[in-house]
Amino acid sequence: MNLHVSRLYLLLLFGLGLAAAASLHMGLRIYDPATVLAALRGGTDSDALIIVSLRVPRTLVAAVAGAALGLSGLLMQVATRNPLAEPGLMGINAGAAFAVTFGIAHLGAASLLELGALAAFGALAATIAVFGIAIAAGDAARPATTLLAGVTVAGMLASLTQLLLLIDETALETLLFWLSGGFADRGSDLLRLGVPSLLAGFLGTMLLAPALDALRLDDDSARSLGVRVSTVRLAALALGALLAAGTVAMAGPVVFLGLVAPHIARWLQPKPAMATLAITTCLVGAIVALAADIVARLIVAPGEAPIGAVLALVGVPTLIALLRQRREAVL
């Protein structure tokens, strides 16, 4: 690891710690450091209860979700060579959300294990559907084709999810807040879904990193280096779907994080190896998620803005800029 990368990691870790500390201090009520420290040391007053039972889980969920979605987006972008790929735009989040909604409304799913399994199944099924449509269109290599297939699948699954909720009013009351995506009022037990998927996705990425470095060139070059291109691509997409599924089961469908975090990481660390880029992306994703969550608490205080709306302020301009770059490259 060179000196530049070490300094970057230290800077990002400092930023992550700062964002986490701000998350514990800021909200409808802004606490001073002494109050937060007293709560973390085992305080029992009302302020300590709010900090320990609400803000600590919220901070941890946001950090894990941001890291997982950032890494998921990176894997999808590398596997497809599509800079626009990310779990929300590719329909992966919608697939996981539909599966969880169907399981709760019609299968009686309630345990964390059942919700995690449903989210994983839905995410993988949506991934297969998106790339199946792109391949059937005969132009799967073009980013615009894959993106259009993802948006189509996401729209269809979102409509089906809304239909399920309209049919079952009990499920509507239970799931409407969760389906909006966010980190508020998430219990720490949900980390049992998000943390294992993040660890599995990260370890899988580290194992695939040399092959993914070759895959970033082109298929022929990767094959000449002994890489099984189809196997590596499918494994990377499966890991990306798993990461998105864990996040959806934990925090609902959160959009644009998977698009923004990898591109910020590439800007901070131009042309890095896949292993170091994955670490940078996880750290950036966690910081962006925490920052967006803090803004969501403050921007319309005493209310709270949807996290998706806050992330869209960064994600939509990023998407437009990427589309313009692709258009200029073609011209």
TrEMBL record:
It is found in: Cell membrane. Keywords: Cell membrane, Membrane, Transmembrane, Transmembrane helix, Transport. SUPFAM superfamilies: ABC transporter involved in vitamin B12 uptake, BtuC (SSF81345). The chain crosses the membrane at residues 48-76, 88-109, 115-135, 147-167, 234-261, 273-299, 305-323. InterPro entries: ABC_BtuC-like, ABC_transptr_permease_BtuC. It is a multi-pass membrane protein. Pfam families: FecCD (PF01032). Belongs to the binding-protein-dependent transport system permease family. FecCD subfamily. This is FecCD family ABC transporter permease. It comes from Chelativorans intermedius.
